[in-house]
Amino acid sequence: MNTWNDLKYKEIIIVDNKNLAKDAYILTFKRIFKFIAGQVVGLGINTLIEPRLYSIASGENDDYVEILYTEKTDGKLTPMLSLLKAGDEILVSSPFGSFTENNDSPILIATGTGIAPFISMLKSGKGRNAILVHGVSSPDYFYYADYLEKQLGDRYIRCCSKSHSNHYFNGRVTQYIQEHQVDPNKKYYLCGVAEMVVDTRDILISKGIPYRNILAEIYF
Ligand SMILES: Cc1cc2nc3c(=O)[nH]c(=O)nc-3n(C[C@H](O)[C@H](O)[C@H](O)COP(=O)(O)OP(=O)(O)OC[C@H]3O[C@@H](n4cnc5c(N)ncnc54)[C@H](O)[C@@H]3O)c2cc1C
User: Fold this and answer.
1) Which of these, 152, 209, 217, lies nearest to 182 by C-alpha position?
2) What is the mean pLDDT of residues 131-156?
3) Which fold has domain 4-93?
């Protein structure tokens, strides 16, 4: 785990901390650094709690940085983060991380808040003709759905595991990938919790996708 001593950081004023759905928030602050889509920042409310990492969910040239996060009721940082209001200060590190590769026509696969680096990629004008597969437990967690529908149309594939509808695939992303054709010439970008990333990678490899064509960012 990174410590505050490992990172360069500043106090930044929060512009917004909006509740999107149960336990899900978007934190917004002014962009005071350059970053590459796919990078993360360390966040905190003081240096007593070690920084937690969050993918940036806004475009490289946007004036404001957005962080999409969920509150873990038994976590150290997020129950306090969710209480912050516009005008409060947070500690924000300089951006870092290497999940920054991109190319045209990628297949982007995310669960939950793991969609953040892909939102950043798309809002930065990267990953043209991407297909995005997003898995969530409840339709409330289809973050940025309006934007994605507009940007990607049919190439935006929603998977919902705990609620049934004709508007999306009923099941997990792993089931979706298992049941659909994959293209060994494409690059697959995975982002989410370890279990999803490992299971999805195994399925892709078993369907003939070369290991080198699978890139992943794991949230732990
Ligand atoms: C590269 C990267 C990018 C990330 N990006 C995002 C993002 O964009 N959005 C997002 O929401 N999250 C993201 N995360 C996760 C984020 O960094 C935090 O882990 C998360 O927000 C929880 O922080 P917390 O302090 O509230 O919980 P923590 O205090 O870190 O606890 C997290 C969970 O682990 C459990 N736990 C804590 N300690 C132990 C222990 N010793 N043994 C067993 N269980 C324990 C807690 O009960 C809790 O359920 C990312 C993580 C990484 C590594």
Assistant:
1) 209
2) 98
3) Elongation Factor Tu (Ef-tu); domain 3 (2.40.30)
